[in-house]
Amino acid sequence: MSARFDSFNPERDHCTSHGVEGWFLMIHNISNTSSVRRYCLVAVGDPNGDSFIDVQGMKQTRSVLNSLFSGALAGAVAKTAVAPLDRTKIIFQVSSNRFSAKEAYRLIYRTYLKDGFLSLWRGNSATMVRVIPYAAIQFCAHEQYKRLLGGYYGFQGKVLPPVPRLLAGSLAGTTAAMLTYPLDVVRARMAVTPKEMYSNILHVFARISQEEGIKTLFRGFTPTILGVVPYAGLSFFTYETLKKLHAERTGRPHPYSYERLTFGACAGLIGQSASYPLDVVRRRMQTAGVTGHTYGTIFGTMREIVSEEGFIRGLYKGLSMNWVKGPIAVGISFTTFDLTQILLKKLLLQI
Fold this sequence. Notes:
Layout: E1 22-26, E2 40-44, E3 53-54, H1 55-81, H2 83-93, H3 101-115, H4 124-153, H5 162-192, H6 201-211, H7 221-250, H8 257-286, H9 288-291, H10 298-309, H11 311-315, H12 319-350
Antiparallel strand pairs: 1-2, 2-3
Helix pairs in contact: 1-4, 1-12, 4-5, 5-7, 7-8, 8-12
Solcar repeats: 62-148, 160-245, 255-343
Main location: mitochondrion
Catalytic activity: 3'-dephospho-CoA(in) + ADP(out) = 3'-dephospho-CoA(out) + ADP(in); AMP(in) + ADP(out) = AMP(out) + ADP(in); adenosine 3',5'-bisphosphate(in) + ADP(out) = adenosine 3',5'-bisphosphate(out) + ADP(in); dADP(in) + ADP(out) = dADP(out) + ADP(in)
């Protein structure tokens, strides 16, 4: 190992120090490279090359942090934009009242008259507490799963084939849902109850734990996971596929912002339509403690909904509102993530 840098010449190999006292060393200039991993190493403050930092690892860490920040911002912006519609949808999902656009408008208007404009965003603080880590984890996990699957299938740095593309999205959604699920229960409770019942997020956690037990924070977990697999899988799959087709037909690797919004809207429409009945089931199970119902299993909940309200009007209640809300939210989310990623990369290049 002592002779590993014998063939290295800073001037010949065009190595420079970028803001630090060190050299960028390229391993491919070193003899016997078959036994050496191909890394770009930085010698910081050590011209003899005795201490090194793995630049590849640094780049990977920076990529993860960029994805986490971009995902968090994307989720926050998207959910805040559609919060009134989302709250209205949840209220109808957990009740036996018949849904219509007219009734949804009346509910929004009555809420505004009774409690004021900001009341339309009631529960949005809980939504932010949930959606920021959820979106951050989901987008970051998606990038990592794409990288891992790309390496496994030999498509590193390229668009994945259809099946791995679908799998990456499903795994990302499942990972995020598993890690943030109790926050989703809290958000649903705050959305369907009067503000006098729960004063803040911590109060929701405390009351549920004391009155209904810790297990209640995971009620509806199974239908959530079963629903997020097709939802996240189809959403990411559709968005990535549309970007791929766009690049092939136009020759532009980066779509315009309005094109990203359109691709995201299509992704949201397809993903949410495919998983919507399970979304209704999980909301019923999550809010059972405050609606007077007792839901034990997924199929038992479905059977009760269908017997009381009908198949379409029960399991697809609020879907038309979701066709308005969902595409807007998903479109904003994907677009914000992509544009933030591009902006961060440009900023880092200038540092």
